[in-house]
Amino acid sequence: MSGPADHDLPRDFPGGWEAAAAEYVLGLLPAPERKAFEKRLLDDLDLEQDVAAWQEYFASFAERIAPQEAPPQVLHRLEAQLFGAARKPVWRQLVPYLLGAITAAAIAWGVSFSGLLDTGNAPDLWADLEIRAPELVLLAHYAPDSQTFMVRRDAGTLPQDRSLELWLIPKGSNTPVSIGLLQDVTLTEIPLSDELAEQVPGATVAISDEPLGGSPEAGPTGPVLTLATMLPRGD
Amino acid sequence: MNTPLSEIEELISRIAMGDRAAFRALYGRTSAKLFGVCLRVLNDRGQAEEALQEAYAKIWTRAGQYRVNGYSPMTWLITLARNTAVDKRRASGRARRYAPIDAAEQIADPGPGPAQQAEASDESRALHGCLSELPPERAEMVRRAYLDGFSYVELAEATGTKLNTVRTWLRRSLMQLRECLGR
Prior knowledge:
The structure holds 2 protein chains of 2 kinds.
Chain A: H1 16-26, H2 31-41, H3 45-59, H4 72-83, H5 89-113, E1 125-131, E2 136-143, E3 148-155, E4 162-169, E5 177-181, E6 187-191, H6 194-198, E7 204-211, E8 224-229
Antiparallel strand pairs in A: 1-2, 2-3, 3-6, 4-5, 4-7, 7-8
Helix pairs in contact in A: 1-3
Chain B: H1 5-16, H2 20-42, H3 45-62, H4 66-69, H5 73-92, H6 114-119, H7 122-131, H8 136-147, H9 152-159, H10 163-181
Helix pairs in contact in B: 1-2, 2-3, 2-5, 3-5, 7-10, 8-10, 9-10
């Protein structure tokens, strides 16, 4: 067993790995150095302690930052995102219809997976998503363990003046449910509410082109750029 | 923050088990602090609100990992909020106005007022004490890097120096800080 080679270290700068630990906490390491650092962090206890110590010291900077009340809509949006609680008023009109769709999806799920309802056995689900314009190669991945929906961007850049919105269309339904916007990071992570999580198996994931900030309505307003079904994959 | 730490830890462990009431309680106790942190980094209310929402969504999904990393609860929360805000700031790629870091004009940190001093943690006292041993413009670079999420490119622009020079300075300052904090 040998750790990462020394050439991963920025030789031209003073301080070695110890200085890199502080740079890591500050978010200053260039990507290749950060990867090498994280690799080393896995089995270097001293380095791990350095990182923890810098986190504690630097976080104490926040003691001098005055608290500011966040507007109440942040909590409302957050709870809607996480628990699917508060909906847009338009949404309410769709509830009776949607309930039918959920029941249908739940029955289909029960039939095809009866006896396997323990989430401990629920498989990870995947879907390849490719878009021509803007040219994007994406991989959707749902991890039932953490109830997180992830979209990895493997190629392409996001438009600056538009938002790409992710929708889930539960099996047997034709009502897309917004699960969030594609973020300008390599891995967009979206925690799903219990209700949404149950509907992922066999669901279709779609991406639509929307104004910045996402669709102003309950459903997509722009063209649907790509669609794929969430399915398990062999290892 | 006057909330006892053990109470925040308990809330986090209940959140790890999916307790929504605990999540709401934690939000009530800590969101003003974390919003202050997001605002400091992003300097834009709309973006700071989005960062705050993202940070708490991460808190909800990652609460189970809190114990593993061994940080104190406020450090864990502040680090999550700060890093989320910094990622957002960098992703937005928006040019932002900032005051240059000028060695001649840089005044030493005036230090905390009496009230802040009374409430300051050991870490905060040690950090500010050790920062004051650095040349003022170097201490300011460390502050900008953490509190404003400055990258090396921005630090180089703010100091009017080359990227490699600024990195050499900062790494030396960080090693000095580490040596002082370890005393």
